[in-house]
């Protein structure tokens, strides 16, 4: 049995992509360990646990830096705990005695490089880039590019989320990575029990509540559309309180509901009830522009039509499979029109539902995971060439 150690810069409670990949490898006979982190306010999470999928989780505590003798800047207070956490992850990574290290995103690639390459007998290193790190909000593009370019010299295999990002990566670094889409697991939505009851049609957003997701615009458009429906906001994030305040100030608290964070295994119970789902990313950077996002496929798997932004990967699926409407990015009037159209054209809605039922047989993890498994079969055969 081959041992695989994955590094992950979160607590590994709601990471759908890593769960899918780790579970697929575990089911294929690999011993999978995920080294994740645990914040000071997350001590309810176990340091070590084994998931039903067979994945072994080993969380490292992140400590708060409390300087006594020096006057520390905010940057120092932030980066010293991160550096110490990286060292803990590296120590844990060495202890796993693994065959393959698999770093999820750039913030765990140093850990992977040290564990895989700074040793007498080198190990295979896989870099799984969930985001476009050189073009993200609040990231220093030039510095990130230099760091990523240097670390890629030590990487044996690279994975990205889709072909648009594979092309961008090839343009930057001179080689084309493997694209593994973040499709939802295949399941029968009719076997899922609904999470709540409502006598109104539910318009659904599920996912992180951060800048660039078009959420303030969605709330404004929902009020202006003035339809007989409930806007359900499933998830959490930095701007949730801002969104709740916006809803209250617009006087639509009786028509909008926030659920907070929902465990991944319970998410489809909310998705099931949606009449339409939103994926309205704003083109604030290439990371957003090139995204396909797992929520698009989660909507599809539940037969939920989608209103999405006109960006390449989102547009390709919505228009290509005819499962909803594509709107102009950051265009409130277009969004208002789309909401009203969906609510007043049941025949179009029924057709989108039917098309989703067909498309889910193509866009699902059971099909897509074969790309990941084939990569690991190649690694097993001894091919360690980029």
Automatic annotation (TrEMBL):
<dbReference type="GO" id="GO:0016757">
    <property type="term" value="F:glycosyltransferase activity"/>
</dbReference>
<dbReference type="InterPro" id="IPR001296">
    <property type="entry name" value="Glyco_trans_1"/>
</dbReference>
<dbReference type="Pfam" id="PF00534">
    <property type="entry name" value="Glycos_transf_1"/>
</dbReference>
<protein>
    <submittedName>
        <fullName>Glycosyltransferase</fullName>
    </submittedName>
</protein>
<feature type="domain" description="Glycosyl transferase family 1">
    <location>
        <begin position="194"/>
        <end position="357"/>
    </location>
</feature>
<keyword id="KW-0808">Transferase</keyword>
<keyword id="KW-0328">Glycosyltransferase</keyword>
């Amino acid at each position: 049995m081959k041992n695989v150690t994955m590094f992950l810069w979160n607590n590994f409670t709601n990471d759908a992509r890593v769960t899918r990949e780790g579970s697929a490898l575990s089911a294929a006979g690999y011993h999978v360990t995920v080294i994740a982190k645990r914040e000071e306010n997350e001590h309810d999470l176990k340091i070590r646990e084994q998931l039903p999928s067979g994945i072994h989780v080993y969380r490292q505590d992140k400590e708060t830096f409390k300087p006594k003798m020096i006057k520390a800047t905010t940057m120092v207070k932030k980066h010293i705990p991160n550096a110490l956490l990286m060292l803990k992850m590296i120590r844990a990574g060495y202890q796993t005695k693994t065959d393959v290290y698999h770093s999820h995103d750039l913030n765990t690639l140093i850990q992977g490089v040290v564990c895989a390459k700074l040793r007498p007998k080198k190990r295979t290193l896989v870099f799984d880039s969930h985001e476009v790190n050189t073009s993200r909000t609040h990231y220093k593009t030039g510095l990130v590019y230099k760091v990523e370019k240097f670390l890629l010299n030590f990487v044996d295999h690279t994975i990205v989320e889709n072909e648009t990002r594979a092309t961008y990566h090839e343009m930057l670094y001179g080689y084309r990575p493997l694209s593994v889409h973040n499709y939802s697991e295949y399941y029968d939505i009719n076997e899922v029990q609904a999470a709540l009851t409502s006598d109104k049609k539910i318009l659904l957003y599920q996912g992180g509540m951060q800048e660039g997701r078009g959420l303030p615009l969605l709330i404004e458009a929902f009020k202006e559309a003035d339809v007989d429906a409930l806007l359900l906001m499933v998830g959490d994030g930095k701007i949730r309180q801002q969104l709740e305040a916006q809803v209250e100030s617009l006087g639509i608290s009786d028509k909008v509901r926030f659920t907070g964070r929902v465990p991944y295994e319970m998410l489809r119970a909310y998705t099931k009830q949606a009449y339409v789902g939103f994926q309205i990313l704003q083109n604030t950077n290439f990371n957003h522009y090139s995204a396909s996002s797992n929520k698009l496929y989660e909507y599809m798997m539940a037969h939920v039509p989608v209103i999405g932004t006109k960006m390449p990967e989102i547009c390709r699926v919505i228009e290509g499979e005819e499962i909803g409407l594509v709107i102009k990015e950051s265009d409130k009037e277009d969004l208002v029109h789309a909401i009203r159209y969906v609510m007043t054209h049941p025949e179009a809605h029924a057709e989108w539902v039917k098309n989703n039922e067909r498309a889910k047989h193509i866009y699902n993890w059971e099909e897509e995971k074969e790309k990941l498994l084939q990569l690991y079969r190649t690694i097993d055969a001894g091919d360690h060439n980029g």
